[in-house]
Amino acid sequence: MTKPEELHPDDVQHHLKEVQDLLARQKVVEDLVHRQDMPRHQLVESLVHKQHEAALRAKLESLHPADIAYVLEALPLTERLYAWDLVKAERDGEILLEVSDAVRESLIETMAPAELKAAAESLDADELADLAPDLPPEVIEDVFQSLDSEGREQLRAAMSYPEDSVGALMDFDMVTVREDVTLEVVLRYLRLFDELPDHTDKLFVIDRDDHLKGILSLESLLINDPETLVADVMRKEAVISFTPEDEADDAAQAFERYDLVSAPVIDTEKRLIGRVTVAEVVDYIREESEAEILSHAGLREEEDIFASVWDSVKNRWAWLAINLVTAFVASRVIGLFEDSIERLVALAALMPIVAGIGGNSGNQTVTMIVRAIAMGQVEPSAMTRLLRKELGVALINGLVWGGLLGVLAWWLYGNVELGLVMTGAMTLNLLLAACAGVLVPMVRQRLGADPALGGSVMITALTDSGGFFIFLGLATLILL
Amino acid sequence: MTKPEELHPDDVQHHLKEVQDLLARQKVVEDLVHRQDMPRHQLVESLVHKQHEAALRAKLESLHPADIAYVLEALPLTERLYAWDLVKAERDGEILLEVSDAVRESLIETMAPAELKAAAESLDADELADLAPDLPPEVIEDVFQSLDSEGREQLRAAMSYPEDSVGALMDFDMVTVREDVTLEVVLRYLRLFDELPDHTDKLFVIDRDDHLKGILSLESLLINDPETLVADVMRKEAVISFTPEDEADDAAQAFERYDLVSAPVIDTEKRLIGRVTVAEVVDYIREESEAEILSHAGLREEEDIFASVWDSVKNRWAWLAINLVTAFVASRVIGLFEDSIERLVALAALMPIVAGIGGNSGNQTVTMIVRAIAMGQVEPSAMTRLLRKELGVALINGLVWGGLLGVLAWWLYGNVELGLVMTGAMTLNLLLAACAGVLVPMVRQRLGADPALGGSVMITALTDSGGFFIFLGLATLILL
Questions:
Q1: What is the pTM of this model?
Q2: Is B187 in the A-facing interface, judged by CB distances under 8 Å?
């Protein structure tokens, strides 16, 4: 793997700046010549152009694939495609793996099938499997035909695992040894390699039939006497391993908890089939938390910031549509009380406060409960206890903040009873928010559904409609 | 480091279940004997109790510190403290490092200064620095006195770096070698170790004055001829290193981008002072994304789900208070138009839709812009371009969804003009949301402030008050 040529972490931003400058300079020359509309200057233009192009090409060549990916993501579409054309074809595959989904799509769209095939063929089976969903089927078919039987087997395996499984994180690049040799033999064996697979912190000890017998850490290999047998220093117990069907999230938690660098993946008969490395896990953790943050704001996926207006609309419309429906329902709840509002218009001004604070408070509860459930730290039996606590918090908040707002309403509208209704409605809506915040995710979990999904929308819908209903209902009963 | 005794990643949940069962069985016995109120049964109780206690102690002893931390977090306070008492004192330090802040507080509260001192003394300087903010000052002082001068120096250094700097992630545990020896000498030197520091994937090559000359990866050490000189196979260029003052976030991005396992930390004169490992980086990434998700929901920090009602109220009040103020302002905006609402009460039912959808749409925009800024991929000069795009998206959404709502309003209230006002107000509020979503984070960035902070609250405040003002204002102008 190539490495960037410098020492400092935010140099990638300097690279970006440099590329942008080169692109801008090129554009200035083009604009100038075009504006003057002098055909004989085309020669000059083309010369200057070539010079800048060479500088840009050299710059891109010096960069790590991940840095090129970063630069491409930060460039608007025309500049991005221009720079993409200058990148050496043999690096295309690596770079396509590093860019975000949306940007990858924009790059692949412009590539000919032959280019795509060449890019794909430069990748390992596990990497190819990651890229495959974005490639045209005929390219996949071509690449598949060009593989040897082991490669085909690996690609078929890698593509067969669902996205959130350990199988999807797995690679097939590893060093295996036998248990009946000495460390000296292992050391000599390793010297036959030109390079070791990335993130090799341990060798896998297997028998003739690929059964995992233990692991030999490089540490054990290095600190022990070369005359020792592998069997005597390998770890046989307490080996953390995964099956391809394990959830990626569990594997990520295990890597985090036990500070792993790599771990073997075995099948049901304990045969070694691959490994997971911390690099894949770090990418997975980052992607998962990204996805969670984006979905909180109702974005379907990471958006190419230079995407077309139309792509952005597609990425965002579903969430807006759902919210429109819930807002419309809330609006109809208000519609039920139009008579009351007509008689006491202050209700119209005060009602959004009750609904809004209920939504905020409910979201606090649901966020906390969902996180605890995701960590597996909440048993269904803890529901009563959690409910009692959340109701306690809601009651205190309701009385304190509701009380304050009650006083404000009294002072603004000179109506004690209106103040009391405000306090009562706030408290009741916060209690409703607390119940929903605990019950919605826990019931979803019991039904086997993802406790996180749509929790926030559901809570907000409840506290909006519920808040309007409670406040306007109480007011109608007591005031009118 | 001890390792868990099993093979499967979600076994930690089974451990939790086992501990909970043991605790429950104990409780059943206690309850039974107490309820029957028979003093002569106390002997039986104490016997059974002892038996369960021994089983629990053995169970806890078999677990990895991270797993004990996980179990403690999932237990309600009394059970948690009971289990904590059974944990061997020499493991206290490691476990305190692993638990969440809130749970750590609950454990430290119950420990005597002598226990805390013993726990702290079992840790390395960098670990101690992480724990220090939660320890009473007299304990820190005691521990500090007990260190040797190198330890004191390291602790002082580790504690001096701000939380989000590379210095805070750094440890001092590393293997250094000289460049003028052969690999054979290095191999023999490593055999003198009982163990290598965790995550040793490379050795640091330094001169007599600690200047970093290069790095020798274990890979190079293993694949090259033992007669080779370190100087000939070490990497001198393209070494990614950090200074303690670098931002932790930049380091995390570099680890992710370049798939690092460890990296040297150097001072301004290129002297080696420590290293950062991927384990710390993974923890950092996870904590940062947790903090972001929690702060989106207005939770100040990760909450102990079994915290007292009072602690929860403290964790959540600030966000509710801010939202109360913005909701109150929005309510006063409505107050300005009470006459209009009195004359056309349908306005009261429709206005929350305009405000709500504006908020949703604004949050989509701000989330996307903040993420792009955080990655350093948005130049200030890109503002116009982004603004144009977001306004385009808002215009389409406004006309589509606003148009739909306009038709609904027309149909519900039989008033064409009301429908037109609805469509107009929706479109204008979405345009307002788009402007705010782009400008708020970008202006904050230009002013040197954190672009993410409070963006969502500010946008929602704007689209609420703005939405009410636009809708009611338009209605007053056109309809009344």
A1: 0.85
A2: yes
